[in-house]
Design a protein that fits this description.
Elements (H helix, E strand, L loop, with lengths): L4 H4 L2 E4 L15 H6 L1 H7 L3 E4 L27 H13 L3 E6 L9 H8 L11 E2 L20 E4 L4 E4 L14 H16 L4 E4 L41 H13 L5 E4 L5 H4 L12 E2 L12 H14 L7 E3 L8 H5 L1 H13 L3 E5 L19 H5 L42 H5 L5 H14 L1 H5 L1 E4 L7 E8 L2 E8 L5 E3 L4 E7 L6 E4 L3 E3 L4 E6 L1
Parallel strand pairs: 1-2, 1-11, 2-3, 3-7, 7-8, 8-9, 10-11
Antiparallel strand pairs: 4-6, 5-6, 12-13, 13-14, 14-19, 15-18, 16-17, 16-19
The protein binds alpha-D-glucopyranose.
The site of alpha-D-glucopyranose has 9 residues, from loops.
Pfam families: Alpha-amylase, Malt_amylase_C
Keywords: Glycosidase, Hydrolase
Protein name: Oligo-1,6-glucosidase
């Protein structure tokens, strides 16, 4: 079987607000993305996923949609999206949009109708319920952003459910009209040539119809994520969700080779069910395990990766994500030197990798002062603000890092290191993080073993290093990662030729029986 483009390609996530501002309002836009397509092609990525670009009051920066079938004027127009699609396709790049089916904005006409009266025909499009006997919320469910997930609507005397911000009411997916309306949204974009969707919070779509209370997590401590406060027994991963995923998939399948990617934060044993029993659900249920490792250690990585490999259903295609717009950047989580090692891991593992914009430079979190925090989660819990990982892309040494013209204040501050860490400077430095990322992507494209081959972790004695082999037909490659900042020596077998090191400085033949690695070094080795 010929592999599909979503199996062989590298996904690149663009947060449109922060990519490139071409109209001088401090916010990135669609023409900005079109302008940077040559850069993305040069970098070597294949699939661009855009975070939401639809009309929105921006309470959650586009994840609160007031019209699913248009573009927010902040980002541009439908025509400008058509140009982007056409220009991307001309370069062999695919374009994936964010689909946000769990909730709309409270300013969406559907919700406006729904809240207008208990008798309105769209009342049942959302999840409304009478107050508890004491007048409080119908049950104990909490929002991901903190506090009760219920909001009282004074006019009609009922509560509506919002698993996120109060301005993001949850749709009622038990209602067949809601399903049809949302599948029409998919068709609208597929007809316009969109190559697929990343589906927001896919595992949350169905809720218990009896609205039973969730059990409380006894181990939760202040400082932990608010979303960990209770076990979401009754409002996530409900049995009925799989029928919906199959329905979405069947809409896509009528359009040929399109991709369905699911945002799903679940333990791995439950995540893999989202491939579907007959592989008829998500092509790629996002695998976020690299976000939640108990430590950046060889034994942990090996265990997580081997377990995932062993639990994948037959024929299911793996995928790996290192960072996104909801989590701290990888270079901040493990340090910039280890971020190169992580990049080598991401781009040499088996399965489709997802790179977050700016991570190709090793961009770091930017501390956004309290009074400038935009993120609704950050307003509630400043330490958990997601703004830190959403700052403007660093293009060059000019004011605002080339993101916005010089007289403009970008919507979030530009990182202070932009004069030394930006695309323009990095392209001239053959050892830069950017050139390292680009070389890795190129090797992944050139070597069938990396793109399509088998994965096998290798037993060896050095606990600071993680080693695995990728193989395809007669070709064998070793990836050797030193997860410490100290020199290490390993004893493997045979002879090998180093194709790439994280230091970007040394290639050549090595005796694997006594293999030395510098601190924070990763090696890609062809076995001879
Ligand atoms: C997803 C998005 C996140 C958003 C939330 C609600 O987790 O990635 O940014 O806040 O859904 O839509």
């Amino acid at each position: 079987m010929q592999p599909s483009w979503w199996q062989t390609g590298v996904i690149y996530q663009i947060y449109p607000r922060s990519f490139l501002d071409t109209n001088g309002d401090g916010i990135g836009d669609l023409p900005g993305i079109t302008k940077k397509l040559d850069y993305l092609q040069w970098l070597g990525v294949d699939i661009l996923w855009l975070s939401p670009i639809f009309p929105s009051p921006m309470a959650d920066f586009g994840y609160d949609i007031s019209n699913y079938c248009d573009i927010d004027p902040l980002f541009g127009t439908l025509q400008e999206l058509d140009v982007l699609v056409e220009q991307a396709h001309r370069r062999g790049l695919k374009l994936v949009l964010d689909f946000v089916p769990n909730h709309t904005s409270d300013e969406h006409p559907w919700f406006q109708e729904s809240r207008s009266s208990r008798e309105n025909e769209k009342r049942d499009w959302y999840i409304w319920h009478d107050p508890a006997p004491d007048g409080g919320p119908p049950n104990n469910w909490t929002s991901f952003f903190g506090g009760s997930a219920w909001e009282l609507d004074a006019q009609t005397g009922q509560y509506y459910l919002h698993m996120f911000d109060v301005k993001q009411p949850d749709l009622n997916w038990h209602n067949p009209q809601v399903r049809q309306a949302m599948y029409d949204v998919l068709r609208f974009w597929l007809d316009r040539g969109i190559d697929g969707f990343r589906v927001d919070v896919l595992w949350l779509l169905m809720k218990d119809e009896q609205l039973r209370d969730n059990p409380i997590n006894p181990d939760w401590r202040p400082g932990d994520l608010p979303e960990q406060r209770q076990f979401r027994l009754y409002n996530e991963d409900q049995p009925g969700v799989h029928a919906i995923v199959r329905e979405m998939r069947s809409v896509l399948d009528t359009y040929g080779e399109r991709v369905l990617i699911g945002e799903i934060y679940l333990p791995i044993e439950r995540l893999v069910h989202y491939y579907g029993e007959s592989l008829d659900e998500a092509h790629l249920p996002f695998n976020f395990q690299l976000f939640s490792l108990p430590g950046w250690e060889a034994a942990i990585l090996r265990q997580v990766i081997d377990t995932y490999e062993s639990l994948l259903p037959a024929g299911a295609w793996p995928n790996w994500v290192l960072s996104n717009h909801d989590r701290p950047r990888i270079a901040t989580r493990i340090g910039k030197a280890q971020a190169r090692v992580a990049q080598m891991l991401l781009l040499t593992l088996r399965g489709t990798p997802t790179c977050y914009y700016g991570d190709e430079l090793g961009m770091e979190n930017v501390l956004v002062p309290l009074e400038m925090i935009h993120d609704p989660q950050g307003k509630e819990y400043p330490a958990l603000s997601r703004d830190h990982a959403r700052t403007p892309m660093q293009w060059d040494t000019s004011a605002n890092a080339g993101f916005s013209s010089s007289h403009v204040t970008p919507w979030l501050p530009v990182s202070e290191d932009y004069r030394t860490n930006n695309v323009s400077v990095s392209r001239k430095n053959i050892r830069s993080f950017l050139m390292f990322t680009r070389t890795l992507i190129e090797l992944r494209r050139l070597l069938p073993a990396l793109k399509l081959g088998s994965y096998q972790s290798i037993e060896q004695d050095n606990p600071s290093c993680f080693v695995y082999q990728r193989g395809y037909q007669k070709e064998r490659y070793l990836v050797v990662l030193n997860l410490s900042d100290e020199k290490q020596v390993l004893s493997l077998t045979g002879k090998g030729r180093v194709l790439l090191t994280t230091y970007m400085d040394f290639e050549g033949t090595r005796d694997l029986a006594e293999l030395y690695l510098r601190g924070n070094e990763g090696l890609l080795i062809e076995i001879l």
